Amino acid sequence: MKGPLGRFIARFILPRWEHGLALLGLQVASTVVTFPIPLLVRQIIDRVIPQGWVEALVVWGTGLVLLVALQAGLAYVTQYRTVVMQERLLLDVQMALLDHVLRLPHASLQERQVGYLMARIRSDPAVAKDFLFGALSLASDALFLSVGVGLLLYLNWRLALVSLAVLPALALASKRLNARMGELCRDIQEGDARVSQELGEGLNAALTARLFGLRPWIGDRVSAALRFLQRANVRTNTFAAAAGGVLTFITGVGPMLLVVIGGYGVIRGQLTLGTVIAFMTLLSYLYGPTQSMVTTRLNLERAKVAAERVLELLDEEPEEDRGVSLRAPAGRVEVRALSFAYPNGKAALRHVALRVEPGEWVALVGHTGSGKSTLLSLLVRLFPIPEGTIWIDGQDVAQPSLSSLRREVLLVSQDVFLFSGTVLENIRLARAGVTDEEVMAVAQALGADRFIRGLPDGYKTLVGERGAKLSGGQRQLIALARAVLRRPKVLLLDEATSALDSESEARVLQALRTFLQTATVILAAHRLSTVWAADRIVVLKDGRVVQQGGHDELLAAPGEFREVFVEQLVGAKEGR
Question: Which class would CATH give 1-156+306-315?
């Protein structure tokens, strides 16, 4: 199948063809069971009651009850199967989107807000899933209407033409009213999105709001979004009430016409009372499918757009996790003529050359924006390498699969993300099979064990969303414990100890030396206490390597490192 919609059907709907066929079969069975009911009512009124056939009345009445019971049972089974299929389809589409988004390039994720991606994953599939069931509903409604109209014509074609005159008016009114309702619902969706965005920003900025006195400003923004949503809701509900009145009037006209015209026919002896009642029953059956077909057509258009949006996101090129497996590395890192610029055009690295031996500790030093974090990001291929190469033990990092590379080269950044589980669960994410004893041993060595045991439930304490119940330093200790348990051959630390005090940092660095004795460590830091732990210092300025060497060597020579050193000393004295 061609086009986004065709590919959506081929990927998510065709594999469920047997379930769709079963649903269609249930709907056909429901049609077969439903239409004999008015015909039986006609026979009872016209033949059984006038003749006084009590036994026949009991038999035919029992048959009616059984048919109604069977109709109700089929309706339940159909609804149950429909809901189960809808939810399974929704789950499959959402999980496909989530899996794909998690494999998108880092740069692509940085360009989007989390709220936007959440909406795409949650909302679009919820609308797109209606495509399959909308198509089935159209087919079953068309079948139902065809059989119903045929029965009306069979009973009395003149009365049928009068009765059916209401259906086109009902269809036209439903189409126009639904179109307007769709526009109003879009306003509600937009308003809901605005409220979610403003509330999210306001809650995330709670501390900033307190410190800068921004609560009234945040309140005004949220209030404006809420008022927009309120107006949209009022407009929609008012219109819905008016639309309901119009449809109620139209659907009420049909039975009234039948009562007048059918009653006249009964008085003249041209119609039986049973036929008129059967007509009224059949006509009431046809109102629902008529409105449903119009609504379903509009929903199908929305589902089509949503399905195209789903495929649009799935069509984005993910990170390629293909390639050879990284051969068990010793930890030698070599950077050759590496240059990199961000999409805004600003050059972050310019012809960087660097060689780090296995087991060596190298500190990257430089002012903010000098390229330290960018270099570390490229070592784990968070961005494509446009110019130059990076080698791990003689292997170009562009060749191994990403999963293979990131098993051996681990980046720990300043901003730590913790999942809303326990402390123990967050540390054990390092790798499969980690025991509680290993976790506690590492935590003790890093100095984290003391604060963890002081928590209400120790290692089983829930850390809250993003680790909100812990301090910045505590979160960093948990992230570092994860890193140690991962046992990488190359460990990259990007300001990973910035929230720790000097004593805690010294203990952490000593623990890293103990547990990762053979690992290569490259750390980016501003604090001199962190830099002093390295075997060698590499100084970056404007994306270039301008100095490298030992601490004493760099301090003795005029240059960028000495300037940074002096700035920190002056800053420390002024901060006293």
Answer: mainly alpha
